[in-house]
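YM 10:42: UDP-galactopyranose mutase sequence, as discussed on the call
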Amino acid sequence: DLKYDYLIVGSGLFGCVFAHEAYKKGKKCLVIDKRSHIGGNIYCENVEGINVHKYGAHIFHTNDREIWDYVNSFVEFNRFTNAPIANYNGKLYNLPFNMNTFYQLWGVKTPDEAKAKIDEQIKDLNITNPQNLEEQALSLVGVDVYEKLIKGYTEKQWGRKATELPAFIIKRLPVRFTFDNNYFKDKYQGIPIGGYNKLIDGLLDGIEVKTEVDFFKEKAYFESIADKIVFTGKIDEYYNFQFGKLAYRSLEFKTEVKDTANYQGNAVVNYTDRETPFTRIIEHKHFEFGTQEKTVITREYPQEWDESKEPYYPVNDAINSEMFRKYKALADNEKDIIFGGRLAEYKYYDMHQVIGSALKKAKSI
Ligand code: FDA
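YM 10:58: structure's back
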């Protein structure tokens, strides 16, 4: 007989939010995860008293008051504001592109001078119909911003030359004519005080959880114990890869403890030249204004994905989008399975979007 109303496969944000909503409505839930910890990709590991973002830097931001109130009901958020720095061949620039950046590039002091400089550079190039990412970016910001702050970083991220990447990857390149280094435009932004694990613990409070359990290893059993399944793993794996394997981009993180209190003075420093093999260095303590004696830094190396690596970013090209469409058609016909989250929907989702999506799907409970 059925022991649970819902079996939730995956303890990432999607699974946790769904489980919490089901639990609130009196449903009996079991959450399983194949990893040794809960939280999915927002999980943090404590090293030297510092919350280390094990699966990449996570900064919460949203324009949605309801979602902001929702997360703050589990843990209070701090006032962290993402203001990344770019290091190009040893020189530092503020990001996103704003008056500070333009001053650092050209010494211009007014918005009119900055606009004139960019317009002049764009005009000189005379690109009317951009054929690739390089031409697209050049036609939006001109040669200096592109060469120093976009080209190398983008090529490392995609593992391909900018001239071989499609133009559509970059639709807009926001340039700001104010001295404003706040990367995000959203009204609300911050990091949970005490770390993301507190958010996960709050969501799963009172709910049964099992880690180091792979759904596929005991599929028949798990299907037999619950009325409905919420699946947040890879959709192609759920359907035995019958239409092929969906592709991803991956990352390798190399983390180091440094015997100094402050290594780079900022949470995020991007390395925008082509030669430095990593794209950025994260100094985790700065997300929480940490005052520990030591510091922990992580270098991020973009990678081609294969089965041995974490699937981080979906590759939304024509082949993979078409393949996903076929899997989704199967998923749409399922009565007792809800597919949700970044792996099951093969979609790059920010945290606030995953929460929004889970809350929406949970309305059917
Ligand atoms: P998530 O991957 O977190 O959870 C899925 C869980 O399912 C995993 O724990 C996995 O182990 C488990 N699972 C899979 N298959 C299973 C199986 N067969 N059996 C059992 N368990 C299984 N967002 C943002 O708002 N701000 C930011 O700064 C960032 N930064 C960022 C950096 C990097 C490098 C990445 C890749 C992503 C971000 N994000 C982000 C996005 C953020 O990570 C994302 O929105 C959520 O973590 C997604 O939550 P999900 O629950 O969908 O997946």
